């Protein structure tokens, strides 16, 4: 079996669900069928894992199976595991913060491999997990765990990831301040009876704002990468 291929048991463990759940989603057509490998064993890949994580996030948000089916049908054909992970992060951003406390064994099940101390330090530095007084217990943000695991396998120095994170946080805060200023100036009404309604409207707008920011960032980053020279700036 290829290194990235997973059995149904491994897929379920990585996603934190049961095998029965995987079979149920497959039967509903929410998950594409696996590749049939040697000995007629189904092989699942990163796309299945990302799609399964997205389905679970949508269910967590309260969508019915019919609504999830409609959501998935709107996704582009052949969407990559990376883009599915971005969709999941967007959906997770609509929800209140939900931190899960898990032990090392469960964390490694989700990761699909043993985690060295350097891996844990890297995940902690990226705010994907938080250490506790127990060295084998962690508080984990499920919305970013899969993306954090992908970063572990990328040949990017931790210093570069942290520097990029600081830049994103700085500009995200600035964007939030400006959007809030515009909202308060153009939409907000000071009447007491309107305050709750205005806050509700702000919460409803949040997914649209987040998606617009992510889409704009993706396009801008692609333009920047295309403009990179063939050599390093100092070379």
Structure notes:
With 235 residues, the protein is mostly helical. It has three domains: 8-93, Multidrug-efflux Transporter Regulator, Chain: A, Domain 2, CATH 1.10.1660; 100-152; 158-226, no CATH class. Helices cover 63% and strands 6% of the residues. It is built from ten helices and five strands, in the order ααββαααβααββααα. Strands 3-5-4 form a three-stranded antiparallel β-sheet. It has a two-stranded antiparallel ribbon with strand order 1-2. A hairpin with a 5-residue loop joins strand 1 and strand 2 (42-43). Helix 3 (46-61) runs parallel beside helix 5 (81-93) and helix 5 (81-93) runs antiparallel to helix 8 (142-152). The longest helix has 35 residues, at 192-226. The radius of gyration is 20 Å and the shape is globular. It starts with 7 loop residues before the first helix and ends in a 9-residue tail after the last helix. 16% of the residues are buried.
Give structural attributes:
10 helices; 235 residues; three-stranded antiparallel β-sheet; mainly alpha
What topology does this entry show?
Layout: H1 8-15, H2 19-27, E1 35-36, E2 42-43, H3 46-61, H4 65-73, H5 81-93, E3 100-103, H6 104-111, H7 117-125, E4 129-131, E5 137-140, H8 142-152, H9 158-186, H10 192-226
Antiparallel strand pairs: 1-2, 3-5, 4-5
Helix pairs in contact: 1-6, 3-5, 5-8
């Amino acid at each position: 079996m290829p290194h990235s291929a997973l059995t149904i048991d491994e897929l379920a463990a990585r996603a934190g669900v049961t095998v029965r759940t995987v079979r149920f989603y497959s039967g509903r057509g929410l998950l594409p069928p696996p590749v049939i490998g040697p000995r007629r064993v189904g092989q699942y890949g990163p796309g299945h894992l990302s799609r399964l994580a997205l389905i679970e996030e949508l269910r967590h948000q309260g969508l019915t199976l019919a609504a999830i089916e409609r959501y998935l049908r709107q996704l582009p054909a052949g969407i990559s595991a990376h883009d599915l992970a971005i969709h999941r992060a967007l959906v997770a951003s609509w929800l209140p913060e939900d931190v899960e406390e898990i032990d090392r064994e469960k964390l490694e099940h989700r990761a699909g491999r043993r985690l060295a101390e350097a891996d844990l330090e890297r995940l902690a530095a990226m705010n994907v997990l938080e250490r506790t007084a127990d060295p084998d217990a962690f508080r984990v943000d499920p919305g970013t765990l899969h993306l954090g695991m992908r970063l572990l396998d990328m040949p990017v120095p931790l210093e570069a990831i942290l520097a990029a994170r600081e830049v994103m946080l700085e500009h995200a805060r600035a964007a939030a301040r400006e959007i809030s200023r515009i909202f308060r100036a153009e939409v907000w009404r000071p009447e007491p009876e309107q305050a709750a309604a205005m806050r509700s409207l702000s919460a409803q707008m949040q997914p649209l704002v987040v998606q617009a920011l992510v889409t704009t960032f993706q396009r801008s980053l692609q333009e920047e990468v295309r403009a990179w020279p063939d050599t390093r700036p100092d070379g």
